[in-house]
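Exercise 7. Predict the joint structure of the components listed below.
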Amino acid sequence: MKVLIASPLRPYTGSSTVEASGASVGEVLHDLDRRYPGIRFRMVDEQDAIRRHMRLFVSGEQVFDLAHALKPTDEIQIVQALSGG
Amino acid sequence: MAKKTAAKAKTKTRTKTSKPAALLLVATRKGAWILRGDAARRSWKTEGPLFLGQIVNHMVQHPLSGTMLAAASTGHLGPTMFRSTDMGKSWKEVAQPPAFAKAEGGRTVKRTFWLTPAHESGVWYAGTSPQGLFRSADDGLHWEAFSIVNDDPQYRSYMGTEQDGTPDGPMLHSVIVDPRDPKHLYFGMSSGGFHETTDGGRSLRSLTDGMEVVGGFDAANLAFHDPHCVRLCPSNPDRLYQQNHCGIYRLDRPGNTWTRIGRAMPKKVGDIGFPMVVHPRDDKTAWVFPMDGQTVWPRTAVEGKPCAYVTRNAGKSWQRLDTGFPTTQAWWTVKRQAMTADGGDPVGLYLGTTAGEVWMSRNEGKSWSCLARHLPEIYAVEAANA
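Solution:
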């Protein structure tokens, strides 16, 4: 599955788009962490909540639940809402 | 040929004399820098930035392993920690940064605020925001919760709420390990008081007797206590000095009552501030950097005239140290981790301001000079072994 990576996370992936697999958004993030260790904790906290400024989209629709089921044709966009100075 | 030999010899000499003999680790709101000094601590080179754009709350070297850790976060990504085993030349992210246990209503580490190397190689402690205490036994690679403090209901009540914390969040700091006993630790909480464990974190006791709180509040409620920075004297582990929200204190163990030694500071200056620095070999000598704590708490140098103060007699009297500092219109703020001492003789003192300047004294505070300007807001400075 194609995953678009937000620019602050690209030091982990080295690329703006990577491949990862899973039946849910949460599984895809775990798979990303296996491939790029440390990346998940910067997006998801220890209580399994999506961090405040992270936004996850599945094929263009924002999702708030890591259990959100995925179709094989879905794409995930990981976006960061930048604010402050 | 002769020219070549001469050139080679010159290069060798230059290499030898330029070998770094002093290191200063500078953590800022926008990354970290390393200042490398010569043996005389007169010539300094600024290297960086490291982790540009990351909020680095503390960067510390373990004196036994030599490993350096940098506690980092951004305004948007979760916290992490970087680790170097080659004197800061290369850095890798640690495998498992501090995190609270997953639980119903469980807390989330927003940042690691404080790093303390233990007196065992590879052992570290970390204090977080919100208040949590963590330990690593593998030189910073993996971190686990240490002590009951993170979850004990009574201690959680001392921590208060977000509203009781600092503008950067409530934090656990001043983690101190007794050099004689690895199971004896101290730590401070802003807010939440000052505490110790003598059994490796299984039980805790509060050490707040004698510490004052803001007028009108009840000193018996530990949530009102705000120790800003506490240091243990390396030359006398039974003596601690504290810079508190409400004064400067000294505690001599096994006593349990702090003495407000800041009463001897000039009234016009007061005894409010953030950092507390102790002499590496003399338990009667300590330094502070007074701040304006009037009305709405500007937390700047009093009257815009930066100065440190030193006591040479364990707090009976204090002397002003400001030679070399700007004499007017310098509204510095120096945070609790942003003033430190090296192990030199005479002791070198270092401080970093929120306006991004690093200052140093090679003579225990008698005179000061600027080492670096125009850095981001400085959170911490730490001397390290070159």
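Discussion. Chain B touches chain A at residues 74-78, 80, 93, 95, 97, 99-103, 106-109 (CB under 8 Å).
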